[in-house]
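Schema walkthrough. Field components (list of strings):
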Amino acid sequence: MTAALDVSGLVAGYDRTVVVRDLSLSVEAGKTAVVIGPNGHGKTTMLLAISGLIKPMSGSITLGDERIDRSSAESIAGMGVVHIMQGDGLFADMTVEENLLMGAFVSSSWRGRRETLKRVYADLPVVESKRDQKARTLSGGERRLVGLGRGMMRPARVMLIDEPSLGLAPVAIEAVYAAIAKLRAESGATVVLVEENFTHIGGVADVVHILETGSIVRSGSFDELSHDRTVVETYLGSITDVTT
Amino acid sequence: MTGTFSGLSPTRWLMIGSAIVLVALFPLVYTDPYYMTIIVTAEVVLILNISWNFVLGMAGVWNFGQLAIYALGAYGAGWLMLHQTWMPAMIAILCGGLFSAVISVLLAFPTLRLFGIYTSLLTFSFAQVVQYVALNDPRGLTGGSYGYPTVPGLFPNMSQTSYLRAYYWVFAAVIVASCLVVAWLRQSHLGIALRSIRDSPGYTAARGVNPRMTRVIAFGLSGFLAGVAGGFYLSFEQSFTTSQMGLTPMSIDVTMLVIGGLGTVMGPVIGTAIVTVIQTILIDYPGWQLTILGATLLVIVIFVPGGVVGLISRTSKRVGAWVEEDSDAVEAAET
Amino acid sequence: MTDIVAIIVNGLVYGSIYGLVAIGMTLIYGTLRILDMSQGSMVMIGGYVGWWALATHGVNPLLALVLAFVVTFVVGTLTELVSVQPLIGRRGEVDFEMVTFITTFAVGILLTNVALQHFGPFQKNVPPIVSGNLDVYHGVSISYHELTMAGVSVLLMGALGLFLARTRWGFAVRAVAQDLDAARSLGVPVSRLYPATMGLASALAGVGGVFLGALYFASPTAGDLPLLQALIVVVLGGLGSLTGTLYAAYLVGLMQAFCEVEIGTTWTLPILYTAILIILVIRPYGLKGSPSEARL
Amino acid sequence: MTETAARSPQAILEARGISKLYGGLRAVDDLSFSVKGGEVLGIAGPNGAGKTTLFDTITGHTIATTGEIELGGSSILGTKIHARCRMGLARTFQQPVAADTLTVLENAYLAASFRRGRTGRRSRSDDVAAGQAALKLVGLEHRATMAASQLPVYDKKRLMIATALATEPLVLLLDEPFGGLNPREIDDTLALLRRVRETGVAIVCIEHVMRALVALADRVLVMHHGAELFVGTPGEMMRDQRVIDVYLGASGSGAE
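Field assembly_structure (string):
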């Protein structure tokens, strides 16, 4: 089973500051890999490098059998990489429907955009009810669902999802993860999902990777890792410190 | 104590000293009135550029009203020279400078509430208003487009060669003084505060620097020097027309500053020299002059970010670093 | 009473042509975040195309407008590739907004002086698109040329509005204006969109230039006045929004018409610039009073 | 570091009822806290909980919609950013920032020239000495003549702390000082901040890296959706069910 997406020895960051240090990760086709890690350790930078929004400093990124780490974000999007950005990346002054239509901008999907739009509305009734509102007027949870809906507007070989639970109330997070589960079932796309905390990824993750200070330190299934010393260590700080 | 900052090494002082001596002796040797006039006019433009470089390059405020401040200095000095004849011309010119400094400070307050494009649009509009008002010459204060009436000036009755030579020396002295003051200011508390605000305003304010007041001082100082330059121009040329303030002279001055190197001490000197030489060579092809200047400006901004001075310091640093590597290697070998 | 009619009629005509030139600048600021100081010379080029097509070759006026559109579209695209694109990669270390202010300014100087070199300094007479006058109210008449100018300007601005609101590439332009990275991640080819946007904005100014050529002759410096006027409109309307620019264009047009009728043309621009000065002092970012993110 | 702010029982920084509204969104929602000399108050919470916005209202980078802020007993509402610094309130930023074209020492000298303890006419040698002392405290004295732009991330973060200390603050506001650091750098920064606490400076510290926050903070305020979710010792925080659900995630409960 060739990996749908293979990242090896990736080094990336912003002008001189290196954030991702020698990161390697490969995801099998149709599988969902979840990358967990504290803030500021390179999760978002990794996704930005994969989708071409920042140029990797070194290392290689391969989509199927094609290297994409030198291509522009626009051409990588054309090859079927969908990137649902941190915060949601909606166009604030365009309506929900206009945002969704932009999801089908690539020429191959633009013609069939009306039908795809109907399907997305069927999957996400909340989004349909807000179709003519400007994205700026939506709540955090609604914006996140529109972001996901936009990602569903074109066929995806690989879907990158950046912290879908960021800053949302628990009830909104449930709705977002329900939408992600539906998306996985229907599209069969390979998914790389980045999250900061552990609670919601149980039902979604086929494999979990722990990322710390710029590279993957541990990998395994959700059950293995949720009862594991180092995961607690990364998150909770050694309990011994607390008692002094 | 200045040693802690990049002070001037003895060899650098020697170079500056010999340059000043050369500049001083030049008019004794060379007296062709045509080229001397060009040089003296270029000196006045250089004084204006030094003042503009201080607020534009060092303080980082995109002020496009400097030519209007320069003109107001000329009109102020001119009025004093015409109507207060008891006052020596030099004092009149300095008062013109003070007048411009006050106007510049008044302009600073609204300007410093803005940022980016809006700063340049406000100051640009100020310059347009001053130019139009001067053009319509209210109560004969500005002489409109025909130019300011002739004034006695610094050296009223002199033969042409000694007239040119006298002005050459006065302006050269003012240039050397201004450069030294700017170099000193750059390392002073004010200069460091200005450059810090230019680099990151939010951070610098959080470290106790009052951004607004520091930059108002920069407006005042540069306004004074620009006003003095205006007075000098009127005194030397014996007239000052509103065309001095238009879009074209402004674009030439910007080209000089950018080619020389914005925010550096010697940038204006080198930039003004290069552009003046280009203008003089192309004097017979007016169409080509600005085309070449426009193209040079474009090339320098894109390919030579720090201007000529930036280029020189980068290459000398690279040479320096290369030399240091050797000395480090030697040191490493010794320990 | 006739004064008021004259002010309104002239005001609407001036407003339309100011709108056409200024809306291009707002479109460019919205997408590229730069103030295009070469927009004035596009008006100048339009004037010369008008002169070449109408005066020397007697081409059908409509064709002259199309020709001006195409020529300035190409020049505008080249201007972006020369003065903006090389700097896009270096947004970090260089003050992008200010440097592009200078480089587009430099292109303006270049184009003005190439025209000076090629066509010589003397003003060239450009025949009107349509001859004849229309009597609006006893004593107040407006030339058919100016009416067509207003009509074509409104038509083009409307077409721009429809393009942005309905078409795929219109969506892409608005998307780039509001969130560049999100737009790129959806496949919008920014390295081709930016030059085309500047080309389109320049083409609008070029068409305006043909009309203005008949009113103010074609000459190397024909672009300076429209640039100054467009800056007034853009400051008033707020750089980000097309609708803001439209309102400001007609406001400035009416103010200019008022000044010309009541006070005299020499004082028109000083008054307009004084108005700008006062507005920027009281409302630091134009009428809307807040730094305008792009609305488009 | 001069022994100016002795460990005073009375709160040095007092914030009461702070709110910040952006249109309908309540970025900070009626929040109060206080911190004494020599005490470390940690601020935690998921992304977008309003932590940095709260900081910005204290330092004046944004204007609080409602609320009272008192520094050393006197209100600082409405005072400008630079005035608050001179009154003894220094902060660092989430993204490491400095005056890039200035040298490291020039950065420290400029901050030291506005330090609280400076009396009488400004003397350059005293200011430079105070700047050098601040650099020595964070171990950057050997980089004095280097341009700030060339510093790697960790050194730039240390320079930010050094210039903050150079203003001799009563209160030091830190915005994610440990973000992006490797374990050794975290330990060095912990040691540095503990030394700073000994001199009697009050510290308020936003942090995500649990290990560092727990080790440093005397008390922790956890924010969620702009409001206070929890206040207490780090130990209590670990076992508080609400904090675990909202912020720490299942691994928290898995840690009995």
